Amino acid sequence: MRRLKISFLNMQSLLRLDLRLKRLLRSCCRAALEEGGYNESCEISISFVGNEKIREINRDFRGIDSCTDVLSFPMADNREFELNKDTGCYSLGDIIISTERALEQAKELGHSLKREVSFLVIHSTLHLIGYDHPDEDGEMTSAMRACERRVVSRLGLDEGKA
What CATH number is attached to the domain comprising 80? Predict the structure, then answer.
């Protein structure tokens, strides 16, 4: 991959978005893009919000009036992304994470909030480049899950390094 530009927006106070975490999340995006076969210079926006904000966004954009852990808003279909002439990067889209919901899931699964947020970034980055999971037993879902496992393993997240 040539260049990866990530914009972070922090609208919550549960998770400290420091330089170390930003580097980890950048590594998650880069590894997911590489595993997913995307090698162009690109930019991604990652926002951290609370449950009420993600519920509002979910309701307004998807018509689902409930809280969720993460939302992905790809900027293209079939990997036909728009080139940002100012940055020279393709705009892949936006990732919005509820840190409140991520913390609940981390506790349920017995790992850290940073590890859960890292996984959500990996998962959502794959969505931005066209991966999906329309049904839990389908071929697309299997391919996405396999890619997620490879990235998690590659970054050592399955060993509790986050």
Answer: 3.40.390.30
